Amino acid sequence: MPTDNQRKFKIGGLDTKLRYKSAAPVILKSKLKTVHKQIDNYLKDVSTENLHAMRIAFRRLRYVMEIFSECYEPKLFNKVYNKVKKLQDLIGEGRDLDVLEMKVKNIEQQVHKKMPKYFYRKIEEEKKQIRYAIKMEMINFIVNKDVNRIFK
């Protein structure tokens, strides 16, 4: 009987008897499908939770890409990998701002002191800018011909 982790990490369509190179597209498509689902969730609801879930999905896609890098033409692979990494880093910046805001609010409660309002306005301004950049990069990622070619 499969364990919870075995069920959690199961990749649909993956035959355990597949050779390494044959398994690559199956696994990468599965991870890309998860990324697309998280992008869709984020575009419907630009929340801290959805941003975090999207970051995890991109991180997992990137790590799987690293494992299967030798299964793809290097020039194409590097183009797509760099797009994934750039988007993951950008999402990470957005996540960092969310965490910073939460930590500062937590510290305020602990020390019973308030930060100046302009501090929070600056964080909100930065969050708005980074979220706009994330949305633009996500759209570019979804329609990118190299991304669609490597994951077909």
Give a quick summary of the entry.
With 152 residues, the protein is mostly helical. It is built from six helices and no strands.
Report on the biggest sheet: none
Content of β-strand: under 5%
Q: What top-tier CATH class fits best?
A: Mainly Alpha
Specify the CATH architecture. Answer: Alpha solenoid
Backbone CA Rg: 19 Å
Classify the secondary structure makeup into a structural class.
mainly alpha
Straight-line N-to-C gap: 33 Å
What do we call the CATH topology? CHAD domain
Q: Let me know the CATH homologous superfamily.
A: CHAD domain
The residue fraction in helices comes out at over 70%
- Total strands: the figure is 0
Mean of the pLDDT scores?
90
Please write the string of helix (H) and strand (E) elements.
HHHHHH
- Unreliable spans: none
The gross shape turns out to be elongated
Number of helix segments? 6
Number of domains: 1
Walk me through the structure.
The protein has 152 residues and is mainly α. The chain has a single domain (18-150), classed as CHAD domain (Alpha solenoid). 80% of the residues lie in helices and 0% in strands. It contains 6 helices and no strands. The longest helix is centred in the middle third of the chain and has 38 residues, at 74-111. It is elongated, with a radius of gyration of 19 Å. The model has no long low-confidence stretch (mean pLDDT 90).
Main attributes of the structure:
152 residues, elongated, 6 helices, CHAD domain
Task: Itemize the secondary structure elements and their pairings.
Layout lengths: L3 H6 L10 H25 L3 H20 L6 H38 L5 H27 L1 H6 L2
Helix pairs in contact: 2-3, 3-4, 4-5
